Amino acid sequence: MEFKQLVEVAEKWCSSVPFDLIFAEEDDERRLDFYAEPGISFYVLCPDNMTGGTENFHVWSESEDCLPFLQLAQDYISSCGKKTLLEVLDKVFTSFRPLLGLPDIDDETFEQYHAGVEEEPEPDHQQMGVSQQ
């Protein structure tokens, strides 16, 4: 994919998450830098099969506080199959949810699912053969 298209995908992704694309550079390496408050930053090196560059996406952070959270995304990238930039960015976002003060994705799904469900009172159980009058 051309770098310009990757930048467009990144910008669109940023419109729905708390991250901003703060730097996009194609000259030395196809690199996209992202930042979100409170001081969360990471970058993505994009594949460049045309010039013999990296074959897969690579995510990293220069912040030691952020690095442990990127492990999930790094494991995902190194697993079988080619990944798209959007898939990689979504995995990074999931990884950083705790640092962003957001609930885990599983917790949020559970809450949304149960938000409209009200518990019904249990019916009174009648004993067989005994009428209640």
Describe the structure.
Pfam families: DUF4581. It comes from Hucho hucho (huchen). Residues 110-133 are annotated as: Disordered. One of its GO terms (cellular component) is cytoplasm. It is found in: Cytoplasm. This protein has one domain (3-101). Helix 1 (3-14) packs parallel to helix 3 (85-96). The N and C termini lie far apart (77 Å). The chain has four helices and four strands. The model is unreliable at 107-123 (pLDDT under 50). The protein has a four-stranded antiparallel sheet with strand order 1-2-3-4, covered by helices on one side. Helix content is 32%, strand content 16%. It is α+β, with helices and mostly antiparallel strands. 17% of the residues are buried. The chain has helices at residues 3-14, 71-78, 85-96, 105-115, and strands spanning 20-25, 31-36, 40-45, 58-60.
Largest sheet: 4 strands, antiparallel
Shape estimate: globular
Task: Estimate what percentage of residues fall within beta strands.
Answer: 15-25%
Class derived from helix and strand content: alpha+beta
Mean pLDDT: 82
Rg, Cα atoms, Å: 23 Å
Strand-helix topology:
Blueprint (H helix, E strand, L loop, with lengths): L2 H12 L5 E6 L5 E6 L3 E6 L12 E3 L10 H8 L6 H12 L8 H11 L18
Antiparallel strand pairs: 1-2, 2-3, 3-4
Helix pairs in contact: 1-3, 2-3
